[in-house]
Amino acid sequence: MAPTFLGLVSLLLPLSSLCDARSLPKSVREPLAQPLARAAAVASVPATLPGNWSSFGCFSDSVDSRSLSESSYTDTSNMTVENCIGFCSGADFVYAGVEYAQECYCANSIATSATNNSYSDCSMACTGNSSETCGGSNRLNVFWSGQTAPSGPLTPATVGLWSSLGCYNDSAAARTLPIGMGTTGKVTVESCTSACHTAGYVLAGVEYSQECYCANDFFNDGAPASDGCTMTCAGNSTEYCGGSNRLNVYAYDGAFTSSSSSSSTSSSSSTSTSSSTSTSSSSSTSSSTSSSTSTSGAGTGSSSSTTTGTSGSSSDSGSSTSTSTSSDANTTPQWSALGCYTYVQTDLPFRFNSLTLSPLAMTSITVL
């Protein structure tokens, strides 16, 4: 046994010398050293940042309660600390944060629920620069501009001819306002209401800081929400643009009334009443009376017409009276045949299904 053991030792000793990289030829040693050097280059917070921005710490975060909650975007291939700071700075935010290698968040204050943790918790390399750290799982590398946060954001009561209806619930699977405008990035209340008006809609909603939706009525049980509209607009940090599954909704003045909406600052209505009576006998007599009244102003109008006729052609007799009330022409009414009428056009656009009819709203009706 002893000679065999010594023989193994003599074989192992030359092999062990290979473990010492210094004993290897240079042509072999240098290629082996290159990946080791790259592995040793650990991602870190950039030493030089744009302007007066500086590192503020590694903060906790949560999907349900964002530490920086006013604006955000994701870039799976080109997220860097500098790109995130540029995004937040461009929207006048004083705090910027990178998370999970690819996410950027902005705000003018850090949530009180956030805690400052060790920098070692923020160790994920940015997707756009592997030498920089971009937070971690539920961890934010936070940066500060050195400036004082501006006065708190608000929800504009009016934007031009649009009025705020408040904060509404929403869902990606069942949109309250189902027509997406496809606008991203520098969204403001003004840009969204303008886009919806151009497309012929009377309701506009901003959501999740950078999304814009339109419609002529509320859908999928959309209703006012008591909270949740806390994210500021990506294009204007002084305005609120909804939140996660929350819409700040605006209505075009004088162009919207809906029974499904529990609050509205602008409305218009139209009421029409018609009655007809027919009596038949062996003689032939007919008479008709019609009247029309139109009142316009701030989106409110009313009209009424009455027709009475008597004719004799058979032994049957009958009478009927009908009254109908419909909401504004910009919502989908319950249609019924009332005869042939003339109309006067105004410049109020509205949309019916996918066809834009502009202008086409009746303010004066006369029976023919």
UniProtKB/TrEMBL annotation:
Residues 1-21 form the signal peptide. InterPro entries: Sialate-O-sulfotransferase, WSC_carb-bd. Keywords: Repeat, Signal. Residues 52-146, 161-253 form the WSC domain. PROSITE patterns: WSC. It comes from Schizopora paradoxa. This is WSC-domain-containing protein. The lineage of its organism: Eukaryota, Fungi, Dikarya, Basidiomycota, Agaricomycotina. Residues 259-331 are annotated as: Disordered. Pfam families: WSC. It comes from the Eukaryota. Residues 259-327 have a biased composition (Low complexity).
